[in-house]
């Protein structure tokens, strides 16, 4: 009876997976995929935080009121973007593998990454025309030709054509960059989820 009781106790202990073993379900191809994704999210935060002050600096440099308004708007937009990235990063770090199943954690991480990328790309598509206009106005203002340019229809045509080129180019560049940054890791998580569904 003692041997049987001991074996049952041992069996119970084996079924209680420690936190370390649970996290092994998120380790793929000798890489901590979750940590890699978090690091890339952190880089987005750092990148946004680094460049945001320059937009507000441009407010004091550019002479025209239109330029000041454009750069102030872009700066504020980047602050909201920075807050969004920080919130998404904290959401990702909040997933606790000791309290959730591996599948729940992986699904949560994937949804968090997809939401971040999706909203970033949509927001960028809205912001690129303003950024292009701000750069155009800044160059004219620095050259001292802002008042002259405002009176010439051909200058507005040049701006319009420039925005038609810049907006889709910047949008697809962002999509490509996000794909290079995240896709290989999200594919690994998707593969792991498929394996879990099969078991």
Describe the global form.
Answer: elongated
Please provide the count of β strands: 2
Count of individual domains: 1
Low-confidence stretches: 9-19, 21-31
Helix content: over 70%
What value does the average pLDDT take? 81
Strand content: under 5%
In whole angstroms, how far apart are the ends? Answer: 35 Å
H and E string: HHEEHHHHH
Largest sheet descriptor: 2 strands, antiparallel
What strand line-up does the widest sheet have?
1-2
C-alpha-based Rg, rounded: 25 Å
Number of helices: 7
Q: Which class do the helix and strand fractions yield?
A: mainly alpha
Explain how this protein is built:
The structure is a single chain. The chain has helices spanning 2-15, 19-23, 33-61, 65-94, 102-142, 146-150, 153-198, and strands at residues 27-28, 31-32. By secondary structure, it is mainly alpha-helical. The chain has one domain (45-198). A two-stranded antiparallel sheet has the order 1-2. The longest helix has 46 residues, at 153-198.
